[in-house]
């Protein structure tokens, strides 16, 4: 079955950097979207980045554009999220997600657009 496992979270000072990883297994389709979401206490889960396995530009929510970069290594079945210039408001549980999707339909940044989810990795940014 499809399994997504995140890692790389931790505690950092504001202005620091972290790189999250999400290893996917059990996925046989070569056409799929993968995305990063986060959820802070008391807030809804929000999409922050997504990209398609076939390439093309990624999508980023405005609050992370210029600071976060998603990348996908198809050979390693791993999605990364490089997070720079971290802010306290970035503190959240970060989840990766996946869904089968043909290239050309885009990759959503909404929670309901994905049907496979990892367990999450905590990111805490202190001021």
Quick structural summary:
The protein is mostly beta strands and 127 residues long. It is built from no helices and eleven strands. Helices cover 0% and strands 50% of the residues.
Topology:
Elements: E1 3-7, E2 10-13, E3 18-25, E4 32-39, E5 46-52, E6 59-60, E7 68-73, E8 78-83, E9 92-100, E10 116-117, E11 121-126
Parallel strand pairs: 2-11
Antiparallel strand pairs: 1-3, 3-8, 4-5, 4-9, 5-6, 7-8, 9-10, 9-11
What does this structure look like?
This protein has about 130 residues and is an all-beta fold. The protein has strands at about 5, 10-15, 20-25, 30-40, 45-50, 60, 70-75, 80-85, 90-100, 115, 120-125. The strands form two sheets. Strands 2, 4, 5, 6, 9, 10 and 11 form a seven-stranded mixed β-sheet that branches. Strand 5 (about 45-50) and strand 6 (about 60) form a beta hairpin. It is globular. The mean pLDDT is about 95.
Order of helices and strands: EEEEEEEEEEE
- Biggest sheet features: 7 strands, mixed
Unreliable segments of 5+ consecutive residues: none
Oligomer: single chain
Percent of residues in helices: under 10%
Q: How would you describe the shape? A: globular
- The DSSP helix count reads 0
**Average of per-residue pLDDT values:** 93
Radius of gyration from the CA trace? 14 Å
What fraction of the residues are assigned to beta strands by DSSP?
A: over 45%
How far apart, in Å, are the first and last alpha carbons? 40 Å
* SS-derived structural category: mainly beta
* DSSP strand tally: 11
């Amino acid at each position: 079955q499809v399994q997504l496992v995140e890692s790389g979270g931790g505690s950092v000072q504001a202005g620091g950097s972290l790189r999250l990883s999400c290893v996917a297994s059990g996925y046989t389709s070569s056409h799929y979207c993968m995305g990063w979401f986060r959820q802070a206490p008391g807030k809804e889960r929000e999409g922050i980045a997504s990209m398609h396995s076939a390439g093309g530009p990624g999508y980023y929510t405005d609050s992370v554009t210029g600071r976060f970069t998603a990348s996908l290594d198809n050979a390693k079945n791993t999605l990364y999220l490089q997070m720079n210039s971290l802010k306290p408001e970035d503190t959240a549980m970060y989840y990766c997600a996946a869904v089968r999707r043909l290239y050309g339909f885009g990759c959503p940044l909404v929670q309901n657009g994905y049907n496979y989810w990892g367990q999450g990795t905590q990111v805490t940014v202190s001021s």
